[in-house]
C-alpha cells in the first residue's frame, strides 16, 4: 500500500508542476484533488497494475483522463455513512466538476475515468 500512496503523491506533484508551467496555478488545488481521487480509484480498481494519467487542454477546458486498463462496471458516487473511511472520492470529483462548469464520466468499457473542468474563472 505504501508504494501506491507514493504513486498517487507523485501524480499530484507532477500535475501541480504541469499546471504551474502552463500558467494555471490558480486551478491547481481543484485539479490535484481530482487527480488524487481518480488515480487512487484506478490503483485500487486495477490492484496496482499500470495506471496512466493524461492531462490535455482544449477549448478552455482541462481534461483529466485516468486509464487503468481493467474493463468492468461503471462506478457511481455512493452515499457513505458518517463512519465510513472510504467512498467519498467520486462525490468530490462530481462536486468539483459542477463547481468548475465541467463534467466527469467513465468510458463505456469502464477502463478509464475522466473529468473536464472549465478553465475560466466563474
Structure description:
- This is ATP-binding protein.
- It holds the Pfam family HATPase_c_2.
- GO terms for molecular function: ATP binding.
- InterPro entries: Anti-sigma-factor_SerPK, HATPase_C_sf, HATPase_dom.
- This protein is an alpha+beta fold.
- It has helices at residues 2-21, 28-46, 89-99; strands at residues 52-58, 61-67, 103-106, 112-118.
- β3 (103-106) and β4 (112-118) form a beta hairpin.
- α2 runs antiparallel to α3.
- The longest helix has 20 residues, at 2-21.
- The model has no long low-confidence stretch (mean pLDDT 85).
Provide the descriptors you would attach to this structure in a database record.
4 strands; 122 residues; four-stranded antiparallel sheet; single chain; alpha+beta; 41% helix
Topology:
Blueprint: H1 2-21, H2 28-46, E1 52-58, E2 61-67, H3 89-99, E3 103-106, E4 112-118
Amino acid at each position: 500500500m505504501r508504494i501506491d500512496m507514493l504513486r498517487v503523491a507523485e501524480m499530484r506533484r507532477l500535475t501541480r508542476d504541469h499546471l504551474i508551467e502552463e500558467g494555471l496555478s490558480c486551478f491547481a488545488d481543484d485539479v490535484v484533488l481530482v487527480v488524487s481521487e481518480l488515480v487512487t480509484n484506478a490503483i485500487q480498481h486495477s490492484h496496482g497494475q499500470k495506471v496512466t494519467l493524461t492531462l490535455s487542454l482544449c477549448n478552455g477546458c482541462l481534461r483529466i483522463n485516468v486509464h487503468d486498463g481493467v474493463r468492468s462496471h461503471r462506478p457511481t458516487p455512493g452515499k457513505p455513512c458518517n463512519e465510513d473511511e472510504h467512498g467519498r472520492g467520486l462525490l468530490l470529483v462530481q462536486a468539483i466538476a459542477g463547481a468548475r462548469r465541467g463534467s466527469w464520466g467513465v468510458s463505456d468499457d469502464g477502463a478509464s475515468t475522466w473529468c473536464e473542468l472549465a478553465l475560466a474563472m466563474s
